[in-house]
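#lab-general

N.A. 3:47 PM
ok so I finally got the sequence cleaned up, no stray characters, all 257 residues accounted for. can someone with queue access submit it? mine expired

B.Y. 3:52 PM
send it over

N.A. 3:53 PM
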Amino acid sequence: MEKAHGGHQAHVHVRNVEKPTEHTVIQKATHTLARNSLHPRKERKDDLSDILITLKFQHVSHLVKTRLEEFQLLHTHSDSEWFSELCFCLLTANSSAQMGIKVQDALGDKFATLQQKELSRELRKLGYRFYNKRAEYIFEARRHAPGFRHRIIKLVEEGGTRNAREWLVQNVKGIGYKEASHFLRNVGYKDVSILDRHILRILHENGLIHEMPKSGLDRVTYLKYENLMRIMGFKVRMNLAALDLYLWYLQTGKVLK
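B.Y. 4:20 PM
back already:
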């Protein structure tokens, strides 16, 4: 209550302002990003969507198809192979897919058997930079190995791929949204995006995001950029797994897992 001029009291109506929910923030940001994708920067010579559609009719489409079939095949494999793929994704964080593949090929089932110090020594011998920390993460992740495949499949059945991703982020040390999405894509799920530096760079270079993130994406930012990828995928008629492989190819010239 405040006093008006002349001594009379005047009622001041204060409107309650609700704090926006995470869903509202993501939805609003997605609309903005979608609008930007429909009105790209003028200096772009070729529309990214047109380039992606063209690639679907080139030799790389065979490489993408083969890689996606490999992911689907891995979906039917054992707990030990799913755990090995989780370890591969742990190793790619702040490193590279090539290094992760090198280590995975060299160690095989040893991810599940070596003691932490032995694993650290093996990683160091193979030239892996973060040998102590990743050995710790892999060793700690082993507690999830028994029944791991069944657990992930059940989580997806109960709440979708995003539900399984949340569980991985919350329960596996060293796994963020990018690494969890990478793992889920590699075991056959097609509706999450792997927003690594290559993908983010191509989005930025094509005017779809305003700036390159200087550090890892928080949950809200990750989800809003993933929604942008969904819009792009819808436009070019690709699922997110295929879209990621094509974009990665555009940036690196390779179709890796």
